[in-house]
Amino acid sequence: MSDAWFVLLAVLLLLVLIAARTPIFVALSVSGIAGILAIGGPGALELVPLALVSQLQEYSLVAAPLYILFGEVLAASGLGAGLFAAAYRWFNRVPGGLAASAIGSSTVFGAMSGVSISSVAVIGRMAVPEMLDRGYKPALASGAVAASGALAMLIPPSLMFILYASVTGESIAQLFAGGLLPGLLLAALMGGYVVVRAKLAPAEAPGAEERFTWRERFAALRHVLPALLLIVLVLGAIYTGVATPTEAAGVGTLAAFAVTGLLYRSLDRATVKRVFASTVQVSGAVLAIVGSAFVFTQMLVLARVPDAVAEFVVGLDVSPYVVLAAIMLLLLVLGCLVDAASLLLVVAPVLVPAVEALGFDPLWFGVLLVVNLEMAVITPPVGLNLYTMKSVVPQLDIADVLRGALPYIAIEAGLLVLLVAFPEIVTFLPEIIA
């Protein structure tokens, strides 16, 4: 039996294990080890510990638990409530102002946390009950938060870009820069959508009765200043060359502890214990997936799958953009079945050589990949943001959450088209800082 058949059987085993609700890191490890054993024999099994050690000792991965801790500290600070209150004072007279405020808050919080479910949990816990109390339809209220929470994956500092850099060798700082403009553009498109929808169907988003003076609006900005300072501290340290992305994560985390403890007085003993426990749990899960995904990737490398895919793609007598469109559609389908981090870690080593062979920039493709993965977190049956939204606001019907998120999939697909048509949206800032 050829190596190609062994790879196919390993992939089928992976899908069966996922369908059986086996933990994803176990599914990746078992199918990867089985494939390595079948292709290379018992002697090839020495690749397994080597793969685990070589990937998990990657210096850039140190940033992952630090940014997760950063987000957990901020989630406990009460900063999210201040962001939402400030945004509402500025957008309350806009149609769908509460939903627009939630999107704005998620954008700023995502620029600090880097983890989408943290953003959904923090902003959703405050914004969605407020919208429901004011007569917003559940689908509109929950969809705005579930979808905009995914902005944390695209706007730096992004955990997805850290993982992409760890398997492709791209610069984390360059990826952060490449994701900034697309992230802000996507936030604007999402905000524009809720405003237009509220204007066309006012019953879904009743107008606000409160009036705020300009003094009150500017006074509310004091809640935004700590967030902006943290963002400037982290990104400024990276792009001025003062610190690497990993070092900036440490600096930002210390600053987040200072803001949360000294400014918001939110760090009692129980909170600190909960923050570290949650960080260990999330970090352990992420790093377990990273290690097991690399074992699976080593099986693919052993069978020369990346080289074969690149050769096949180059040999196709079609436009490179047709191939790119097919890749994006495939990722959308796979994103419905596999969580975003696992999917990125498995497909990036296979697809990036093919994309480079077609003449595309791997950094640009990384941003496209993350936008595609944003769709994955709001599509069933694995859409983590949907279930996070349901868990923080239990009275919601999951069908309403899903229905509210669907229009944003179309918005993100539209952004993909824009990024393909105008790659400068991605490459402009990285070229400046290069």
UniProtKB/TrEMBL annotation:
Signal peptide: none annotated. One of its GO terms (cellular component) is plasma membrane. Keywords: Cell inner membrane, Cell membrane, Membrane, Transmembrane, Transmembrane helix. The chain crosses the membrane at residues 30-54, 66-88, 108-128, 140-166, 172-196, 224-242, 248-267, 279-301, 321-351, 363-388, 408-429. Pfam families: DctM. InterPro entries: DctM, TRAP_DctM. The keyword rRNA-binding does not apply. The keyword Lyase does not apply. It is found in: Cell inner membrane. Residues 12-425 form the TRAP C4-dicarboxylate transport system permease DctM subunit domain. It is a multi-pass membrane protein. This is TRAP transporter large permease.
